[in-house]
Amino acid sequence: MSDLLARHENIIAPVIAFDTEVIAERAEGLWVTDVNGNRWADFACGTAVTNLGHNHPAVVSAAHDQLDRVMHSGCIFRYDSVVEAAERLAKITPPGIEKFGFANSGAEAVEAAVKLARYHTKRQGVITFRGAFHGRTMGSVSYTTSNAKYRDGYHPVLGSTFVVPFPHPYRWGVSEQEAVERSLHELRLLFKHVVTPENIGAMLIEPVQGEGGYYPAPAAFLEELRAICDEHGIMLVFDEVQTGFGRTAEWFAADHFSVDPDVIAIGKGIANGLPLSAYGASREVIDGWPVGAHGTTFGGNPVSCAAAVAVMDTMGDLLPHARQLSKQAFDRFEELAQRHPTIGDVRGLGLMIGVELVSDREQRTPDKAAFKHVQKYCFDRELIIIECGPDGNIIRFIPPLITTSEELDWAIDLIDAGLTDWEATR
Ligand SMILES: Cc1ncc(COP(=O)(O)O)c(C=O)c1O
Question: What CATH number does the domain containing 115 carry?
């Protein structure tokens, strides 16, 4: 074990999981270089954050400029980068999202979004969807059901949180329409037997379930949830922490649907690697949240906000390229699925693609060992990929938006070869 790994193990809480043992020396664009000069293309994007690639020059430069001027306010004085970041957000977020607050992490943004909805509706109940990942703070982990292990040791979690199954057609072995009907049926049963809609302030959903397995919400499902929320005065909250900032080849996943949320939570790619997150809603809703009902010391840090402005100035031009990459990737993975019996399903939205690996296609048996094999095969050939899903068997394919068409082919060729290698051992 290298000296730094040993020191790391000795002093850093082991509860934080790492996907590789790489000790990074520098990172630029697709590539992370370690202390020994080895390099890897980071198709994990620092867990869906560096959508513009590592250390994007425009982002670094904006952050440097801000760092030299003002690096912290702590809500003592105002500064320009936070206003500019919010003004730009207002231009790209879904219709009806008009005013913003900032925080540091996705979990904080989700908690703020739910607090806002609860405050506004004066109702405390929250509906979440099975398979969701909303974070690990005590509130957000109460909404997280992508894997039971995240709540192990913390029960009871926050009360009045009700979990409805998210439609998982592939895993349930049913059509999309059938899955939607099943989920809506469960929601109706919840209202009938467990809690009346008049007690629910927020319905919290990822428009594409991320950590839970890269399941896009069927359009019909979101449309029906919107109608139910409107009927009962419930606020529809989109967690776009992972789906936002170009990950689905649009600014937000909501752009793929005819449904707009009442409240949005965003994070991850917003500042391409500096800690920042945000929540937004209509002017009326946010202006009804009085001074002191929520707050933060570091949220909306000047340097992170300057980086976010640079991200928003840069990313728009890349979205058409991201759409092309998405089509290329889906075409290639669907072709791979014809040849590799290990691929059970290919799904996702934009550049948020899940490739589910199974040991038995008919039974859809999750194959974590296959994922581990392909992951190592790729890692040994300079490509980092990570997984998602409660069974650890889904390739979470999230290339940076700056990836060229050739680089995308190279990465998919490696996955193809890794699968061939795995299947040869079976
Ligand atoms: C959809 C979603 N919401 C919330 C979070 C929590 O974000 P953070 O880890 O920044 O608290 C994540 C993180 O993976 C996420 O994917």
Answer: 3.40.640.10
